[in-house]
Every structure is written in structure tokens, then in C-alpha cells.
Design goal:
With 1377 residues, the protein is mostly helical. The protein has 71 helices and no strands. α2 packs antiparallel against α3, α30 packs antiparallel against α31 and α43 packs antiparallel against α44.
């Protein structure tokens, strides 16, 4: 190594204070190059700085004879004699006398050596004086000596500026001119490093990095270039927190840390024991990665290298301990290592008060308060600094000596001015206010003062010089977390669960709090900054999730916890907090799963009170009363629950990820009281709540206890007692507002006192006429359906804060509730203009304007003003999207616009939805890129994209079918895309199934339906479609199964029930229907009023030939929008054909108990029902067919001709329209023109049976079969009847016609068998079938059976003609002997 390379490294060691390494470095150089005077001099300096004073002095005295070294040697001898523990005053005086003479005889090289020595011992004036002697005034340095002098001068300016010299800071800017005029290759590395430090002092960090990069490139042997860059990059990441403390500018630190770690690793590749590189790596392990054990291992390695390389240094150990104690989150292992470093540092520097103070603070971190107090007392004796007194106050608070702590605070206030007070002192005042006096207002005010002083401290530090990475000590994240956690004492406690149900009591809606209290905003702000700066800290994540959960912002809380688990999947505290969060969402299954995972990763977590509390709450919510009660009693036996441990304050609470908050403690009390109340152990519940009142008196949790007590009183019907409990809270109490809200809830829910209910909110307004209280009053009026007063209250709130977007929304909705639509429109338009006027420069439309536009567009849509809605929504689209939130808003706007266009511009819908889909894809991609850890948020955005694609597919399927030949192709493409983003999108699955069904791709349709049913067994559409497909394929029995499963899950699904009745009829299992109807009735007690159930009962009654009941049930459902149309169709058909026989046949005169048959009254009723059906008919052709049947039923020539002409017109449009074919054939039969009827009906045999004309297909075949029987073509008639029975096993008419054919063949035995089956299928309620069956029995000489059938017919139809005389009497006579 040349002397040129030797000096820069030597000077670096000296500046860093690494004197042991300096000593070793000099000795290595001397051993290789010989005893060069300069290297020997600096070896002597290293000996002196490592407290080997005598060796140092002996080394220096060896130069006394050399005149060229006389002055620097004399200067050094004087310095180290004064540094010696036993100062030789005589020698010091002699050396002082020799200095002037020595300076005169010393040459330039010696003067520069003395100047550099003066620089390093802090004598900047002497260093500057000596360099000026060498440098020519006003001339640029040229010679090596002059360049060396210039380097010393530059470092002198820099070091003075680092100490705060304003003139020197101004001179630093002159360095740029000098350095830029020279080539860096020609300059000494040490001089270039002075330029780097000058940039750092002037906050030109990027310029400093640029110079360091050149140093690394030009001088790759100079390892400090790499380490300085690594430290600087880490410092850039660290200093960003202080610069962004007062605002919310995100600190982009990840890039700097990555570069810093890469650079540090390069340094470690060259020197595995490099202290600076190891420090960077260890800081990164503690602050950026949540791997505590790995971080401890790195810290242990750093301690090992420190003890090996700098065993006698006190300042380095102090420096490292100060940093790592504040970023260790008080990990015991890390604190133990820091303690060893400080002990070693104090042993080497016993008089250093900073080290002594740090040792005391470390004892507080460890929890050894007695030892900390002793050290602070020792420090106060040596120095009257406020820090010693503050430390003693901290210890007194932690040991519960509140009166002594208050006295000490008063003493400090008397001794020091407000300007001298630190953020920590104001924080201590806040703790006293809360714990000693329960004064929440004073507590918040003192915390605000502490935060303000902290901000001011950061401003001062960022303006001055901070050694790289030492900003961590000044930031003190440990104290910042203390401050944030203290603010959380002002979280509004959630309302407790009902004492009997275990669920929310209903006193408050479970929704995000609209106005986050200022104290909580401060806490969130601090925690977010700590989280951004130190993402490896667990506590900020846990506390933020706790905070958001209390504010009911569950998605945000979940996102934060998921980000922890992405860094450390086996983090048990995060899993316990996730379980607690799921409990807040009433998702006990997910909560149980999270607890199980926590136990699997860390079995010891089961012993923590928080774990046990969450477990108790889950059991309570799951209704496991005995387990919950036993576990709650065991939990209450823990001392941490009944008596708080270290309360909110300067202890370890802010670093305890499993800490039990006061809210948690009160939940434990209330949960036990709830379980006891459920078990009717009311006295014990009262006792528990009484204990809770004492424990939480004067705290925010007092409200929860009062609520629980009032609930207990309410459950005993002691409403007045509950009100009196809440009235005990005074108006000046911070919990007064919430107590009034709870009181109001009791008044309105249990006492039906609306006036008292609103008076509670009026009282809040009278005490504090704030925006929040007026809003509460407005919501109260809306709750009791008094929107006019609500509008007034909201308007009063709006006068106080005209920028409140949520208030604007509430006022608009209140106007809508009062049906003052014009006022609502005017208000929304005005609010949009005001919101647009307040838009920041560079933003085309604000989020508030977008929300107001959406509300206004929905109102226009409701009023049918589609063009206005379209205008508003198109104006709400961003012309230039600045960020992802703008894109999200545009997606919402486009989706709403598509709803409007669907009504007034259908051709534009697909383009709008496509645009929304493209925007949502950008949202998904951005979310995936920026929130890799938060899979739940990514999934939510993917589901939203899937829904948009599904809407596109549905639109193509519904609106473009028949008009666009590519409708099915486009629809299938969009629906397939929807399933790519969300495989469980049931609407998309059903849409694909519909496409397959319409394209007659039945196998694919079945597969899609089965897949859908596996995803959602309760899906009605897929079950019905699968059943229909199976029925079409002839798998009639299998077609019932999907409907059976659906009705088992949802008995009141009337679409499925209707389809089930029709299928059971076709497979001959109608007797099973009453069981399904009974199940629907028992499942929902209000089902008697359901039109769907009435329709299904009417359908069953019709199929079982109970005409009167059928008419009654159909009549009760005919007004329903869903079932009314079909009910009217059935009623019309029944009135036209009450016996459900051919309308062309001449009636035989039935009994009067049935509706009159063939009378004008029936036709008039049918005609009335037909007019009622017309506006709601879904199928115009079917309506026309019914209208024609009414005309035919009149048997009027003109009416019949009109009906026949109508049928002809329908068949001209569609020659295979079966209902028209059947209607026209019926007309021909009524005209006795059987030949034309037969020829027309023969066409039916060539038609395809579909689900839409199954009934008509059956009727047509039966009509033709009856015709064949009349013509004695029995074989053809039997074939048609069997064809009908294959499709409908409950077709009684087919068996009746078969019996008639057998009867014509004089085969009465077979005829009786056929009539018997028809009789059973008619449920023994058809008079005509009963007559034919009895007649066949008579002919077969089965007189008893004939008599039995006759009696059943006569019981229903006493006046039925001929059966009494022709069959009953003959059978009775035949039985007589």
C-alpha cells in the first residue's frame, strides 16, 4: 500500500473514532514500509485515544529531536498530558512555553501535520490558522503540500458547519466551485470525501450520492466509499419520516433501502467484519423485515465485531446501543445486547453523562425501574439536566407513585420555562392527567402539545446536521409509538353485545364512524408514519388494525393484518388480532380458524389473556353457553383482567402486541355478565357489572358498563331503572353524548316514546350545537319517519360546515324521503357546483362531486328523467385520470350510466360496459401490483370486474338475441371472461347455461348447471333449468332431484315448487305435493300471505280436480306482479271448462255444488278476467288464444267466426303454433265439422314436443283420440293415449279415453281397469269418470264396487243425473237374494 492510499484510510478511521483499527492499520503499514514519521505519529495518536497514554507519550518523545516534527509533536504531547488521568501541570506549562518556538522552526509538512491533528481534536481555529500559513492568499493550490492544506481547510469548514457554524455553512457552497474545477482522478480521496460531507451538511443528498458513485468507480480499493454510500442511502430512507411528519407525503424509502443493502453487501464481500456495513444490515433487519430472531442474530454479530475491533471505544458502543434500543421494540434479547454495549462504553468512559443517561433509559426499557431510578439520581447529582428529573418521574409513574410524580412535575415547571420542556415531559403530564385525575380533555391537550414539540424538534433537526442513521435516535420510534398508543385511550368504546343474545344490542349501527375524533386521527397519523418508516415493526400494524376495527373500518383493518401475515405467515399475534376482527364481523368460523392457526404456530399463545378473551367471545356467539360461561369465569380469575397491569403510559404496553386494552377488559366483564344473564343467574350478573362500574368509573369504558347494566334492566322490563342509570352521567362527562344515544334507543325501542327519543338528541344539540350533534338529530328524525324535521336538522349542520360531503348526501336523501324531489334536485345541483368550485388546481373533478352526481343521477332515474341522468353522469367522468381512485370512480359512474342507457339508449350500453370493464382491469392490475400482500382487496376488485363482464354477457344475451347473429358468441365470451376473474360468479355460470340451452347444447348446459349448483346449492334458476333439461331428455325421475335439493334448502322457493308440482304430476306422484306445501308453510309463518304459495296450492288443487279451491287460491294470487298473470290464465281456463273436459261437448247437467257449467255467468267472469290479464300478459299470442276460447264458449255464430278467423291469422304467421291448431280444431268440433278437425289435428303428430306447449300437445292428442274412438278406430286412439301417458302419467283423460275404447269393444273388465285409474288420478272427484267406472263395474257384475263408487259420486254431486237410477239401484237389486 502506498502512502497515497494509506492516508485516506487512516484519516477515515480517525474521523470515525475507530482508534483500535487505526492503531492496527498503522502498525501493519510500519511493518511493511518501515517507521515513517507520519505513520509513527498517528500510531502514537491511536495509542493515546485508546487510553494507552504512557505508551503514546513515549512514542511521541522519540520525535522531540526532529525540528521538522517539533511543533506537531509538542502539540500532541500537550494534548495527551492534559488527557491523562494524572495531569503533570509542570510538564504542561513547559510544553505550552515550547509551542511558539516549535511552531517557528517547523516546516510546512510539520505545520500541516499539526493542522490535521488540531482538526481531529476539535481545535478548528488552530487548524485554520496553520493551513492559512501554507496556502497562498487568493491563489489556487498547485503543489501537493498546498493541496494537502486545502484538504484540511475543506474538512475544517465541514466540521465547523456540522457543529452549527452558520458562516461555515455558507462557505461550504464555495467548495463546489473549487471541486468542480478539478478532475476527481487528480484529487486526493480524503478531499473528495470532504466534498461528499459538505453536500450532506447542505442536504444535497443526491449530489453526495453522485460523488460517492464516482469515488467508488475511480478508487475501488477505497472501501469507505461503499460503506458511506450504504449509510447515506439508509439515512435518506430514515430522514424522510421527519420531513413528512406534518403532512401525508408518502416516503418512498423501499428503493433507497434496497440500494443500501446491495452496497453494504458489496462492502461485506470485501470485509465481512466491516462495522458500518454490519450496522446498516442490522438496522435493516430490525426496521424493514419482521424477523426478530434474525435481527437479534445480526445484532449479536455486530457486538462481536465491535468487541473485536474496537474493544476500548465508548462512543461507538453508546452510538449503537442508542440506535438499537429504540428500534428493538423492547425485545429482551436486543436490550440485553444493548446493555452490554453500554456497560462496556461506560467502563471505558466513566465520566460520560450521556452514556449514564442512556443506561438509565435502557433500564426503563428492560423494566428494571429501581435500577433506573438509582442511575437517574446519580445523574442528577452530576448534572442538573431536565433529563434526569424526567427519568425519575417516568419511574415513579411506572411504579404507581402518582403523587410523587405530580410533585416532581410541578418542581420542573417551576425550575424551567416552557421553551425548555421536551415532548417527553408534556407526554408525562398527559399520563398524570389520565391516570391520576381521569381528565381526558387535559390528557388529549397535553398529548397534542407533546406532538407539536416533537414536530418542532424534527424541524430543527432536519434544518441542522444529523449524523447518518443517528436520526433514529432523535426520531425515537419507541416514544412515537408510546404517543400514538396513548392517543388511543380516546377511542370510542364499541357497544357491548346483548346480554341475552350475545349479538349487537342495536344501540348503534355497525358502520364506520363518520367523524374520526382528532385524537384518533393523530394516533393514526403517527402510526402510519412509523409503519411506513419501519415496516418491520409489528406494533404499528397491530395498533392500526385495532384502531380501524374500533372505527368499524373492517376492510382496512383486515388489509393491514394481511400485510403482516404476508411478511411473516406464522405471526401468532397478527392471527389473534385477525380472529378478534372476525369476531367484530360476527364471522365466528373465520375467527376460529385464525385462532387455530395461531396455536399451530405458537402453542404458548393459548396462555395470553387476549387469546382467551377472543376464544370466550367466539364460544358465546356460537351459542355454546356452558363452555363460554366456564371460560369467562376462568378468564375473570386472571389478575390482568380484574386489575390492569401497566396502564397506558411510558411502560412496555406500546410494544406488547398481545396487550389487553381497557376495552378488552370491559368486554371480559360484560361477556361473563351476558353468559350469567342467559343462564338466568341475574344476581351474579349484577355483581359482575357492579365490579365493572367501580373498575371503569370515569373512563370511556364506563359507557359500555352502563349499557350492559341498562340492558340487564331492560331484560327485566325495568325500563325506568335503565333510564335512571344513564341519567347519572353528568353533562360535563366525555361519555354523556353516548349515554344519551343509548337512552334514546331504549325510549324508542322499548317505551315507544318518540318525543323522549328526540329530546335526547335535542339535549345534545343544546349543549353543543355541532355538526355531529345536528347530524345525529337529523338521523333520529329519519328513524321515527319525520323527514321534514330531519331536513331542518341537516340544514343546520350544513350551515356550520358547508364543505361536508356526507352532510350534503344526507340532506339530499332527506329531501327525497319527504318526496320534495324538486328541492332535492336543486340542492344536489347547487352542491355539485359548490364542490366543483372547491376543486384543487390540476384536478378536473373531485370525489365529492362524483358522489353527488351519482345520487342526483339516481334521483333523475327514479323520476324517469333519463336525459338529465345521462347528462349528469357523463359530466362526472374524469377528463384526465390522475390516479387509481379516479379510475375507480369512473367505473362506478359508467355502471350507473349503463343502467340509464338501458332505458333510453340501448345501443350504447355495450360500449359503456366495455369501457367500464377496461377501467376495472386497470384497477385490478394496479391493486395486484401495489397490494400483493392483501389478497382480499385484490379478490374484491376481481369480483367487481367479473360482475361487469357478466353484465356485458347478460346484455348480449337478453337484448341482442335475434338481432345480432353474434349475440351468443359475444355473450359466451364475456361470461367466460367473468368466470376467469371469479370462478364462483353464479350469474355468469347461469348465463352460459342459458346460452347452451338456447343452442340446444344440452350436455354443456347440464355440466354448467351442476357446476353452478355445487357453488350455490340454493340457486333457483340452475336447478329449474337442469330439471327441465333432464325432463326433455326423458329422465323424468332424475329431473325431480335438483328441485328436491333446492326445496330442502329453501322450502319457500315457489318457482321451484311450481316446477316440482308439474313434474310430480307428469311422473304420477302428485300425492307427494302436500308434503312440500306443508314444508313451505311451516318454514315461514307468514307464508299464508305469499302469492307464490297460493298459486302453487291452486295449481295442485286444479290437478287434483278441486276446482273450487283452485279458483279460490288463484284468486288470492292474481294481484301479484310475479304470479298474477299465470293465475289469471288458470282462472280463465277453469271458468271456461270447470270439468276440464272438451268445451265442444254437450254437458249432462252436473250438480250445483260445482261452479255452474256452460252458463253465461262463467263466460262473463272469464271475459272480465281476460281484460284484467291484457296489460300484464307476457305472451300476446297466448292471450289471443284465450280470447278466442272465450268467443267460442259463447257458441254464438258471429263470435265463433271471429275466433276462427283469429286462429287462421295466427297460423298464417306460424303454421306450427300448436295452441292455435288446437283452438281451431276445437272450433271445428263445436261446429260439428269433425273431418276438418281431424285433418288439422293429424299435423300434431309431426310436431316436436317442447316445454311451452306440453299441455296443448296433450290436449290435441286427446282430442284426436276421442275423435278416433267415435269413429271406432280404437287402435289409433290407444296409441295416442299411450303417447300422452308417456309424457304425463297423471293424465286421467287418457285413461278415460282408453276405457271408452274398451267399452266400445264390449271389454268391460279392461274398461273398468282404465276407468279405475282415471278415477284415482281425478282423486275420486270427477262425476263423469265415476259414472263410467260404476257402469263398467255393473256390467262386470262387481255390484259392491259399483255401489261404492256411486255413493262417492252422489256425496259430491247429489243431483248427478242417471247414476242413482241406472246404476245404484240396479246394483242394489242385483245383490238381493
Amino acid at each position: 500500500m502506498s502512502s497515497r492510499d494509506f492516508k485516506p484510510l487512516l484519516y477515515f478511521y480517525i474521523r470515525r473514532g475507530w482508534h483500535s483499527q487505526q492503531l492496527k492499520f498503522c502498525e501493519n503499514f510500519i511493518s511493511k514500509k518501515g517507521k515513517d514519521p507520519v505513520s509513527v505519529f498517528w500510531r502514537a495518536y491511536a495509542l493515546g485515544m485508546t487510553d494507552r497514554i504512557q505508551e503514546c507519550l513515549r512514542e511521541l518523545r522519540g520525535f522531540e529531536a526532529r525540528k521538522d516534527m517539533q511543533y506537531p509533536v509538542t502539540l500532541a504531547l500537550l494534548f495527551f498530558h492534559q488527557r491523562d488521568a494524572r495531569v503533570d501541570e509542570e510538564t504542561v506549562d513547559t510544553l505550552n512555553a515550547q509551542l511558539q518556538v516549535a511552531e517557528e522552526v517547523t516546516k510546512e509538512a510539520g505545520l500541516l501535520l499539526a493542522a490535521r491533528f488540531s482538526l481531529y481534536i476539535g481545535d478548528y481555529d488552530n487548524a485554520m490558522r496553520l493551513t492559512e500559513r501554507v496556502l497562498r492568499r487568493g491563489a489556487s493550490p498547485q503543489t501537493p503540500t498546498e493541496m494537502d492544506a486545502k484538504g484540511i481547510e475543506l474538512w475544517t469548514y465541514v466540521m465547523r458547519a456540522m457543529k452549527g457554524g452558520a458562516n461555515d455553512r455558507r462557505r461550504l457552497s464555495e467548495i463546489d466551485h473549487f471541486m468542480k474545477s478539478r478532475s476527481l482522478e487528480q484529487l486526493d480521496v480524503d478531499m473528495v470525501m470532504a466534498w461528499v460531507r459538505a453536500h450532506q451538511v447542505l442536504k444535497r443528498r443526491q449530489e453526495a450520492l453522485g460523488v460517492l458513485n464516482q469515488v467508488i468507480a475511480i478508487h475501488p480499493w477505497y472501501l469507505p466509499g461503499l460503506t458511506e454510500k450504504a449509510v447515506l442511502l439508509a439515512s435518506i430512507a430514515g430522514i424522510s419520516l421527519m420531513q413528512s411528519f406534518k403532512d401525508d407525503k408518502g416516503a418512498h424509502i423501499e428503493k433507497e433501502w434496497d440500494q443500501s443493502m446491495d452496497t453494504a453487501q458489496r462492502a461485506l464481500d470485501n470485509d465481512p467484519d466491516n462495522l458500518d456495513a454490519l450496522k446498516v444490515v442490522t438496522v435493516h433487519a430490525f426496521t424493514q423485515d419482521y424477523h426478530p430472531e434474525g435481527a437479534i442474530h445480526k445484532l449479536e454479530n455486530l457486538e462481536r465485531v465491535l468487541n473485536m475491533k474496537e474493544p476500548t471505544s465508548g462512543t461507538i458502543g453508546y452510538e449503537y446501543a442508542s440506535i438499537f434500543a429504540r428500534i428493538s421494540c423492547r425485545h429482551p434479547g436486543a436490550l440485553q445486547i444493548c446493555g452490554r454495549m453500554l456497560d462496556n462504553a461506560y467502563e471505558n468512559n466513566p465520566g460520560d453523562l450521556q452514556i449514564l443517561e442512556e443506561r438509565a433509559h435502557l433500564q426503563i426499557y428492560i423494566g428494571n425501574y429501581n435500577q433506573a431510578t438509582k442511575i437517574f439520581r446519580e445523574l442528577s447529582k452530576k448534572s442538573q439536566t431536565p433529563a434526569a428529573l424526567e427519568g425519575m418521574i417516568v419511574c415513579q409513574i411506572l411504579e404507581g407513585q402518582m403523587e410523587d410524580a405530580e410533585a416532581q412535575i410541578e418542581l420542573m415547571l417551576a425550575m424551567h420555562s416552557e421553551e425548555d420542556l421536551s415532548p417527553e415531559f408534556k407526554y408525562l403530564q398527559a399520563i398524570i392527567a389520565l391516570r391520576s385525575r381521569r381528565d381526558l380533555r387535559r390528557h388529549e391537550a397535553d398529548l397534542n402539545d407533546s406532538k407539536m414539540l416533537l414536530e418542532r424538534k424534527f424541524e430543527q433537526l432536519t434544518a441542522g446536521w444529523v449524523e447518518p442513521l443517528h436520526e433514529i435516535v432523535f426520531q425515537n420510534p419507541d416514544f412515537m409509538m408510546q404517543l400514538a398508543v396513548s392517543y388511543l385511550a380516546h377511542l370510542e368504546s364499541p357497544m357491548p353485545a346483548s346480554l341475552t343474545t350475545g349479538s349487537s344490542s342495536g344501540n348503534e349501527e355497525q358502520r364506520p364512524i363518520e367523524e374520526v375524533p382528532p385524537a384518533i386521527q393523530s394516533a393514526i397519523s403517527i402510526l402510519q408514519r412509523v409503519q411506513r418508516q419501519y415496516p418491520g415493526f409489528l406494533i404499528p400494524y397491530i395498533e392500526l388494525s385495532r384502531c380501524y376495527s374500533s372505527l368499524a373500518k373492517y376492510d382496512e383493518a383486515t388489509r393491514i393484518l394481511r400485510s403482516v401475515l404476508s411478511m411473516q405467515p406464522n405471526c401468532a399475534p397478527a392471527l389473534v388480532m385477525l380472529a378478534k376482527l372476525e369476531v367484530s364481523r360476527s364471522n365466528t368460523t373465520a375467527a376460529d380458524r385464525a385462532l387455530e392457526q395461531a396455536v399451530s404456530f405458537d402453542f404458548s399463545v393459548r396462555s395470553y389473556p387476549l387469546f382467551r378473551l377472543v376464544q370466550v367471545t367466539i364460544r358465546s356467539m356460537q351459542g355454546r353457553a356452558e363452555d363460554a360461561t366456564a371460560a369467562a369465569e376462568a378468564l375473570m380469575a386472571l389478575p390482568e383482567v380484574k386489575e390492569p397491569g401497566p396502564e397506558e403510559g411510558p411502560g412496555r404496553m406500546h410494544t406488547d402486541s398481545m396487550r389487553l386494552t381497557d376495552d378488552d377488559r370491559v368486554v371480559a366483564f360484560i361477556t361473563l355478565a351476558a353468559q350469567l344473564s342467559k343462564s338466568k343467574r341475574l344476581k351474579e350478573a349484577d355483581k359482575i357489572l357492579s365490579e365493572a362500574k367501580l373498575a371503569f368509573a370515569g373512563t370511556p369504558q364506563e359507557v359500555q358498563v352502563l349499557v350492559a347494566s341498562s340492558q340487564l334492566a331492560v331484560e327485566r322490563k325495568e325500563f325506568d331503572r335503565a333510564i335512571r342509570m344513564l341519567d347519572k352521567i353528568k353533562e360535563d362527562s366525555p361519555t354523556f353524548a353516548r349515554s344519551q344515544i343509548i337512552k334514546a334507543d331504549i325510549l324508542v325501542n322499548h317505551m315507544r316514546d318518540k318525543e323522549g327519543f328526540t329530546n335526547c338528541y335535542h339535549k345534545l344539540v343544546d349543549i353543543e350545537p355541532s355538526v355531529k350533534n345536528y347530524s345525529l338529530l337529523g338521523e333520529a328524525y329519519l328513524r321515527i319517519l319525520n323527514p321534514d324535521s330531519a331536513v331542518q336538522a341537516f340544514q343546520e349542520a350544513y350551515k356550520l360546515d358547508k364543505t361536508n360531503a356526507k352532510l350534503r348526501t344526507k340532506i339530499g336523501k332527506a329531501f327525497i324521503a319527504t318526496h320534495e324531489y324538486h328541492s332535492a334536485i336543486d340542492f344536489y345541483e347547487q352542491a355539485r357546483r359548490e364542490a366543483a368550485a372547491s376543486v384543487h388546481i390540476g384536478t378536473d373533478i373531485s370525489a365529492e362531486t362524483v358522489l353527488l352526481s351519482h345520487d342526483l343521477a339516481r334521483l333523475y332515474l327514479k323520476l324517469g328523467r333519463l336525459e338529465s341522468a345521462r347528462r349528469v353522469l357523463e359530466g362526472a367522468l374524469h377528463r384526465e385520470q390522475k390516479d387509481i381512485s379516479d379510475i375507480e370512480q369512473d367505473v362506478q359512474t359508467l355502471m350507473l350510466l349503463s343502467e340509464v342507457q338501458a332505458l333510453n339508449a340501448p345501443s350504447d350500453v355495450v360500449a359503456t360496459l366495455r369501457k367500464a370493464r377496461d377501467f376495472q382491469k386497470e384497477v385490478v392490475n394496479d391493486t395486484r401490483a401495489t397490494m400483493v400482500q392483501t389478497s382480499d382487496i385484490v379478490e374484491r376488485e376481481r369480483k367487481r370486474l367479473s360482475d361487469i363482464c357478466e353484465k356485458l354477457g347478460a346484455w348480449c344475451l337478453e337484448k341482442r338475441e335475434g338481432k345480432d347473429p353474434n349475440a351468443f358468441v359475444d355473450g359466451a365470451s364475456f361470461l367466460g371472461e367473468a368466470l376467469q376473474y371469479n370462478a364462483q360468479n353464479t350469474k355468469a355460470m347461469y348465463g352460459l347455461a342459458r346460452i347452451h340451452h338456447k343452442q340446444n347444447e344440452m350436455e354443456q348446459c347440464k355440466q354448467q348447471c351442476r357446476k353452478l349448483l355445487s357453488a350455490d346449492p340454493s340457486d333457483e334458476n340452475s336447478a329449474v333449468m337442469l330439471s327441465d333439461v333432464l325432463f326433455r331428455e326423458g329422465q323424468v325421475e332424475e329431473a325431480v332431484e335438483p328441485l328436491q335439493k333446492l326445496l330442502k334448502i329453501s322450502p319457500n322457493n315457489y318457482v321451484a315448487l311450481e316446477r316440482m308440482i308439474m313434474l310430480l304430476r307428469r311422473i304420477g306422484r302428485l300425492p307427494e305435493v302436500p308434503a312440500y306445501i306443508s314444508s313451505a308453510e311451516s318454514h315461514d309463518k307468514r307464508s299464508g300471505s305469499h302469492a307464490g304459495l297460493r298459486y302453487c296450492k291452486g295449481l295442485y288443487a286444479r290437478y287434483t280436480n278441486d276446482i273450487v279451491t283452485a279458483i279460490k287460491d288463484f284468486n288470492l294470487s292474481r294481484r301479484d306482479t310475479t304470479w298474477g298473470g299465470e293465475a289469471l290464465v288458470h282462472m280463465i281456463e277453469l271458468y271456461l271448462n270447470p270439468d276440464q273436459e272438451g268445451v265442444w261437448e254437450e254437458r249432462e247437467g252436473g250438480g250445483e255444488s260445482v261452479l255452474p257449467d256452460g252458463t253465461q255467468d262463467h263466460i262473463a267472469i272469464a271475459d272480465t278476467l281476460l281484460r284484467e290479464l291484457k296489460p300484464i300478459a307476457k305472451d300476446p299470442r297466448r292471450y289471443k288464444v284465450l280470447e278466442n276460447y272465450v268467443l267460442l264458449a259463447t257458441r254464438n255464430k258471429a263470435s265463433s267466426d271471429r275466433a276462427m278467423q283469429s286462429f287462421i291469422e295466427m297460423l298464417e304467421e306460424d303454421t306450427d303454433y300448436l295452441p292455435a291448431v288446437l283452438g281451431m280444431a276445437t272450433g271445428f268440433m263445436m261446429e260439428k265439422n269433425q273431418h276438418k278437425a281431424r285433418n288439422l289435428l293429424k299435423r300434431v303428430g309431426n310436431m316436436e314436443l317442447t316445454k311451452f306447449d306440453g299441455e296443448d300437445f296433450e290436449k290435441a292428442n286427446l282430442l284426436l283420440a276421442k275423435f278416433y274412438v267415435d269413429k271406432t278406430k280404437n287402435d289409433l286412439a290407444q296409441d295416442l293415449c299411450k303417447r300422452c301417458l308417456a309424457q304425463n302419467k297423471s293424465c286421467s283423460q287418457a285413461w278415460e279415453i282408453l276405457g271408452l275404447a274398451m267399452e266400445r269393444d264390449v271389454n268391460y273388465e279392461h274398461a273398468a281397469d282404465c276407468y279405475e285409474k282415471a278415477w284415482k288420478l281425478e282423486f275420486e272427484a270427477s262425476a263423469s269418470v265415476g259414472f263410467k267406472l260404476a257402469f263398467s263395474y255393473l256390467k262386470c257384475k262387481k255390484y259392491v264396487l259399483a255401489i261404492d263408487v256411486c255413493e262417492k259420486v252422489l256425496a259430491l254431486y247429489p243431483d248427478y243425473p242417471r247414476i242413482r237410477d241406472e246404476i245404484l239401484r240396479k246394483s242394489q237389486l242385483a245383490l238381493r237374494p
